[in-house]
Amino acid sequence: MKEIKGLKNILESFKTRQVKFGGYAVLITLTVVASLILLNLIIGQFTFQIDMTKNKLFSLSEQTIQVLDQIRTPVNIYGIWQPGQDNVDIKEILDLYLARNNNLRYQEIDPDRNPGFLLRFDRERNGIATGSIIVEGEKGFRIINPDDMFDFNSLNSGSTIAGISVERRLTSALLYAGSGESPVIYEIHGHQESSLSELGLKEFIDQENYDLRQLNLAQSNIPADASIVIIVSPRTGITRLEADKLLDYLDRGGRLLIMADYRIQDISMLNEVMASYGLRFDYGIVVENDPSYTAGDFYVEVPFMEEHDIINALKEKYSPVVLPFVMGISKTGTMRRSVDIAPLLSTSRNSWLRSDIFNNSAMRIDSDITGPINIAAAVMDPPVAQGSEKQTRIVAIGSSTDMSSMYGDISIFNQQFVPGGNTDLFMNSLAWLQDRPETLSVRSKSIYILPMQLTNLEIAVFAGIFVILIPLVFFIWGLVIWLKRRHL
Questions:
Q1: Are the C-beta atoms of 76 and 98 separated by less than 8 Å?
Q2: In what order do the strands lie in the sheet with 445-446?
Q3: CATH fold for the domain made of 55-183
């Protein structure tokens, strides 16, 4: 049998040093490529992400995670939009919810192709807007309109998106879908109060699944289903009968939010209710003499925020509270041992409380009470409830409900003119009173990118580093290298 020509030479070539090392290199390359493909397939099974946005726009808060971990029954989430027209930001946040709990099921519904499907949720036949989200649980459902998923700032040129509220709305809707119940809030009227609707708070209260009702204490008792009673800036004092009804309600573990300002004509009965729990309103107006605690006016306070569940979420969000014409709040001389009082907001040491509100002196006078002055406080009695024991809670804020501006008197909750911290303070107070910690910090996340603000000293330091020091270092380094090479 004849030997194939050249075959021997080919076989011999595989034994050369070059081919051996080349084969090793190819084998190593194939091994590395196969390992990378396998590693990529393994990593693809995980949803590992890092949220590098300042306000954690695409991360769930701890409170939302607590709510999701407690869901044990199926919940359907429907995105009402046409194929390919979903909002990317909203969808990414929805994906975080779905990845956290397998009981959540998501489905996109084309409103043009499934009008009959939407009818069972559109009870009032007002229509469901495209872009809405429907959250349906065993106990009920909630519809989140597209406009409710964002916070808007109204400008002369139109409205701009100021923040994302998707998590806030979804978490609230999940709470309702799981329970089917809305805590009832009774708003006291009959004393020339500012209604929550007039103040622009009704929408926020509805979105948090509260049932807001009005109550005239002079004519009716506080109903048994009252979760919270609210008194907002009464202009006339409450009567002895009304004070007794409030005290009876609080003795049964009631929850009370009081916002009072200097315009109240008689504060004695209200203070009698407060005194039973160690607090009182100090009549007058706070004058703030520290510019870092004001919003451009001695009577407009930007208070220091204390440590408390109501306040901590505002501090984390860097959301300031701005309160005009505030009264002081202090502890009474005697109080029951079971009462725990926590300050929420306070003024600076350079402030004072002026009880003679008709004295316009810019200097401190003898009758003034020197700061710091508490202007908001929270009360618990007892601090820790054992078993079925009733716990009374009170939030008192020495605040006005409107402030003067070039546009006239405006609500301190009007986010077009006042930072959203005031609204968050109010809503966090309701959540704390209702003992709903899961909603305390689930607030809108701002998308504003604020410019860097530097002092003159900081500008000089940065200029020295980047304009002088760094170029000088490179120049000296280059000079040294040039000199060494020159002498070689």
A1: no
A2: 150-155, 158-164, 445-446
A3: Glutaredoxin (3.40.30)
